[in-house]
Specification:
Two copies of one chain form a homodimer. With about 425 residues, chain A is α+β, with helices and mostly antiparallel strands. Chain A contains eight helices and 24 strands. Chain A has a domain of about 140 residues: Nucleoside Triphosphate Pyrophosphohydrolase (Alpha-Beta Complex), CATH 3.90.79. In chain A, the strands form five sheets. In chain A, strands 6, 7, 8, 9, 10, 12 and 13 form a seven-stranded mixed sheet that branches. In chain A, strands 19, 20, 21, 22, 23 and 24 form a six-stranded mixed sheet that branches. In chain A, a hairpin with a 7-residue loop joins β7 and β8. Chains A, B: One of its GO terms (molecular function) is lyase activity. Chains A, B: This is Oxidase EvaA.
Chain lengths: ~425, ~425
């Protein structure tokens, strides 16, 4: 089942030509050569005694095994390969009022796994390996606006998990810092307005995952009457976390089942780990090999929206993926990782039925430094308000956009998928 | 160094006689016999192959070993005994407007480790072992107001850690549920007003740990101008969590050093694990033996308060104890577990100097089902506003009381010690 083509062009919404030209020029100057290679033939990487795929420095990320088990019975529930990256990255956007209009300093960034290679990323997108220069490369530009302490007014700073079905305990800081000083543009960094970001959001594969995650925190969502109080929304997530009797432990990759061999690790029906060999461009070092996560299919993420007493509400769900650090996190109404639930199929059918209006449908990809052409179609569907009266399982809740964003006050609470949906709203791309 | 006697009587503030009479009568009818015994002679408990002290059912809590290590170097930082209790408990208070005045349904509860045995606890204080009846005892009274879903309006529901220096990943739900229905009092349960709770708060060892933790969430704190924005306060905790490169892993108790023998486990300079044999009373089952945590000294917790532009602010610090589930949590300005820092001593001296005014000083004890006479003196000291201008290390921050409470929006964020301080403020016991 597919939602079909994007409604972007139908509505005359498309990315600003100036942004597309900037990116095209950047790619022409810095494009990479990316070739697939086998995992067990990558320089600098090897399989250790436990079968784990690791880098010789012990840094970047490694491929391990993970077992989830029931806390009471100690029985293993499921096991499989997972990626471990202990580095906490900084995803930061500088914002500044220029000529009375708020601007955001965005970066043209080339990554080997990006469809189209170049995408718009935050001002800074750096893991500790990057800024400690584990690559042996140069310092990360603009990082001192964020670390060790923000040089400006912090507008958002939240610690959120990243793809807990693929990574174990991986999390990043999502920062927005407002500055007064003049920060000059460079070849790689440009000041964009929120209107430009809004229009970029209509375009497939343009705003990268990290941009979407940070933009989700823009304090632009109206606070209106809500079906549930803020305390009830918090209680909903607390309840699921408190009754969660599943824990996870890392084991050797050799201790868990996977298809394929050491050349390509088929981790599950959902993703595999493949190797690539990269050369060219102005990345921190010239030429390297690395593993990347490849999805087995284009995914579909759907957010249902309806009105309660005239106020827009979103149907969110909470899920506990194996690698999550603090248990349940918020996801869109329908998410690929939860597609097997009966309700998921029902909601998907509803979103695609004649009862619903698709107000957003765009392809976005996961971060190209760790994912290879991993595409998801993000859909927002307005459904009849009466849908809100249907009884729902405990894992679902109707909340206002501001309440969904409020959950980011806690650490490890809002998934990448849900933050992407929020960014569609915070940038004003879709006004519900 | 000691803060001396409580200022309670000096101010004429003391617990209501009706509450004291109720508790005295309850103790007379249900008092326990508690005798010390050796850990290795307790029926139902044994040391397993790894040296861990466990219950034969595998439930309640066990004594394990814990190692913390540096994520990069994998070097062990420290190791020692720790308690493991995977049960997530429910600490819940029902509240109801009676005759126009908000009342709270509180419980007279006997625990073997309580100084004075009986203290005022929440309406419900139950671990999953309790309400699954692992004791073989009766159902927990009033639990169905909270589980599986609250039967009323949720006012607070947050998941918070518990003594991360003693327990590994232990956490509880802190719930307040407002109801309209008539809920009759019983011998063990009484409706108290906030004024009565306020006066109880002046008295040593009267409101138990769980009551204090839940009352910290009362939505009674005024929201006023603050020195730092809410985003800056969130950023402060995020920053510490994001740069935390320490992780912890459970190991066998035999793998970590401790003094004493299997009769009494001297876990650290701070606490030991001892055995008690209990009989009598109306607890779920009659007669049992269990381990309890005993502090080696009466502790001192101090919260500094000052005004910023006429608005009260509190000096809080963030600490990462070995057993914390999500890293750094908020603590008072001076906390026993962090007493070794140079600033800690300086702040303590300041609080006790003639420059400061002690506005609160009361002894409270930790939960008597797991702690044996574990006493801490809680002190709130008003210091000159100029103190706020002193430069502080990254782990400290001046926040308003409402901002400190706001941190409970996230899971595992505010320590028992800091929640006790907040309860002094939310009950109106101290008005800054």
């Amino acid at each position: 089942m597919s939602v079909g083509s994007s409604p972007a062009t139908a509505r005359g919404r498309q990315a600003p030509a100036s942004v597309l030209t900037w990116l095209a020029r950047y790619r022409a100057d810095h494009g990479l050569q990316v070739r697939r290679t086998l995992l067990d033939g990558m320089p600098g990487w090897h399989f250790d005694d436990l079968g784990n795929l690791v880098h010789q420095t012990g840094r970047f990320f490694s491929v391990r095994g993970l077992e989830t088990f029931d806390v009471d019975s100690r029985q293993v529930i499921e096991s499989g390969p997972i990626l471990l990256q202990r580095d906490v990255g900084v995803l930061g956007i500088i914002t500044r009022r220029i000529g009375g209009v708020v601007h955001y300093l965005m970066q043209a960034k080339i990554e080997p796994g990006n469809p189209g290679q170049v995408q718009v990323s935050p001002t800074v997108q750096a893991t500790r390996s990057n800024y400690d220069r584990a690559h042996g490369g140069g310092a990360t530009a603009y990082l001192d606006w964020f670390l060790p302490t923000p040089s400006g007014q912090v507008k958002a700073d939240s610690l959120q998990g990243e793809h807990s079905a693929v990574f174990f305990h991986k999390h990043n800081r999502n920062m927005i810092v407002s500055v007064d000083q003049d920060v000059p543009e460079t070849e790689s960094h440009r000041w964009l307005t929120r209107t430009e970001l809004r229009d970029c959001m209509w375009q497939d594969h343009l705003l990268n995952m990290d941009s979407r995650c940070v933009l989700a925190h823009l304090p632009t969502l109206p606070v209106g009457p809500s079906r549930h109080t803020d305390a009830e929304v918090q209680s909903w997530l607390t309840s699921l976390r408190a009754t969660d009797m599943v824990e996870a432990r890392l084991v050797g990759l050799d201790q868990v089942p996977y298809l394929g061999d050491r050349g390509v690790i088929q981790a599950s029906a959902d993703f595999r780990v493949v190797g690539v060999q990269v050369s060219g461009g102005n990345r921190e070092v010239v030429g390297w090999s690395q593993p990347l996560v490849e999805y087995t299919t284009t995914r579909e993420e759907i957010l249902l929206a309806a009105e309660y007493r005239g106020e827009p509400h979103l149907l969110i769900q909470a899920r506990r993926e194996a690698g999550s650090r603090a248990g349940f996190e918020a996801y869109p109404s329908v998410t690929h990782v939860g597609r097997d639930s009966p309700l998921s199929e029902e909601l998907q059918e509803l979103a695609l039925s004649s009862q619903a209006e698709i107000v957003y449908s765009t392809l976005h990809s996961e971060e190209g430094g760790r994912f290879l052409g991993a595409n998801s179609r993000y859909v927002i569907a307005r459904v009849p308000d009466s849908v809100m009266e249907r009884p729902l399982p405990a894992g679902y809740m109707w909340v206002t956009p501001a309440q969904a964003q409020m959950l980011t006050m806690g650490s490890y609470t809002v998934s990448v998928q849900m933050r992407t949906m929020l960014a569609v709203l915070t940038t004003g791309c879709v006004v519900l």
